[in-house]
Amino acid sequence: MSYTMFESAPPTTSNVSPKGQVTVPAAMRKALGIKPGGKVRFVRKGKQVLIEAYEEPPISSLFGILKARKGKGAPDIDKAIDEAMHQRFAHLGRRRTPAK
Questions:
Q1: pLDDT for res 23
Q2: CA–CA gap between residue 49 and residue 41 (Å, rounded)
Q3: Separation of alpha carbons 5 and 56, rounded Å
Q4: What distance lies between CA 52 and its chain's CA centroid?
Q5: Backbone angle region of 55, left / alpha / beta, with phi > 0 → left and psi within -120 to 50 → alpha
Q6: Which residues of the chain have pLDDT under 50?
């Protein structure tokens, strides 16, 4: 029998608690670097569930994802917010006056 899917680790069973909780065996937690409070991701593949260690990308990885357009600064943003507020509340029949 080959365990290549588990990188030489034999399949291990775990009971599902009434709350749907499952304990990841200590040897697997250690091998995958899963610490208390860590996250795992569940991936469904047909009738199988793959559990993998998961780390959320740091917020710094999002830096530069949006490109700023030239000429857009605080006054332009304030104007855009005021216009959006006007559109949002136009059905009330009154215009929101910008803060001064």
A1: 92
A2: 10
A3: 24
A4: 15
A5: beta
A6: 1-4
Q: Measure the CA dihedral 34/36/41/46, to 10°.
A: 90
Give the chain as a DSSP string.
---GGGTTPPP---PBPTTS-BPPPHHHHHHHT--TT-EEEEEEETTEEEEEEE-PPPGGGGTTSSPPPTT--HHHHHHHHHHHHHHHHGGGT-PPPPP-
Identity of the residue numbered 98: P
Per-residue confidence (pLDDT) for residue 20, from 0 to 100: 94
pTM surpassing 0.70?
no
Dist. CA 99–CA 93, nearest whole Å: 19
**Residue 85 has what pLDDT?**
79
C-alpha distances (whole Å) from 54 to each of 16, 51, 70, 93 are 21, 9, 37, 49
The pLDDT value recorded for residue 8 is 66
- pLDDT of the residue at 3: 45
